[in-house]
Amino acid sequence: MAAPDSKHMQALDTNLIKTLRRKLLAWYRKHQRVLPWRAVNGQSPNPYHVLVSEAMLQQTQVATVIDYFHRFIEAFPTVESLAAANEQQVLKLWQGLGYYRRARHLHQAAQVIVNEHGGVLPQSAEQIVSLPGVGRYTAGAIASIAFGESAPILDGNVARVLSRWFAIESSIDETETKKNLWQLAEVLVPQRNPGDFNQAMMELGALVCTPKNPTCLMCPVMDQCRASQQGRASSLPIRNQRREPKAVSHHIVAIENNGRYLFQQRPDKGLWSRLWQLVTLEDRPASVSGKKLHTQLGALTGVELSTPALIEAFDHQTTHRKIRFHLWTCKRRGGRLRNQFGRWLTFQGAQRLPLAKPQHMAVSVLVDRSTKDD
Fold first, then answer.
1. What's the pLDDT at 324?
2. In angstroms, rounded to a whole number, what is the distance separating the alpha carbons of residues 220 and 228?
3. At what angle do helices 62-75 and 47-57 cross, to 10 degrees?
């Protein structure tokens, strides 16, 4: 292992390492949250539960994940049951969590575990990282929590904690800084109880060492934190300035045919891949007319339509885009749907398929309107 740079290693003597570990673990054992994937009362962690929770917790808050985790484990109680599931079932249970690639990777990882490892999750970070969708952080979290390997982790919470402990003045978005943070995490993680220590680091970042207004007076290692000593906790970590999300317009068109609506499955790659949607024209001018949509939709679907009418608009933001969705309705007048373009489904039938959040919102608007019309 390459040593952390000399500036940070100077502050990382043996006594400091022992003090950080001791104080943090004592705090964690007293203040840790009871979470459905955590082992309690001396029980051994369930590796499959750890795998599922780590997939769900990527870029998602704990409070959001809890209900999803319960439903997911109820549907797929073992890695074998997840491996045998249809991908659409998995995506449906994931609906609303976002970042659907995580669900597909988790499903694929379960299949690899069953087909190549006899249904037993590999125990070392080096092996775990070879599973689909598993990076260094997730591999270290699973290896340390589920199997007691002294493997480091570095997620957003841990990076923030470390940058404050050691008053790191370079941006944590820079490659060299990330390298140093990983080295610090590797030095700090103990041989004994590495899973508890790693969870304690994440817990401290989630509950005390928060992005804004950290409650330093509640921190068990305030006296060892250089940022706190310098009165700079709120100004660290330093981040690169992020680009504003690009503003774009999408047009969702609900094409009705005798109480059924035309739904199509998204492509295998890209945003919301393999989820279902009402016919959606992406990256079009916000001010497009119903007549123009009529012409474009006819050429696209092969179906003769009434002129679409705009009924509502709403916003949805992804990591890189701020999307204005325009919701239109029209009726099929005749013609034949192009082969394999999509399916005519009732709203009830569509709700059994995985829909991205904006599509679910559109369906909800349409259901509300139809209920009022009745």
1. 97
2. 12
3. 130
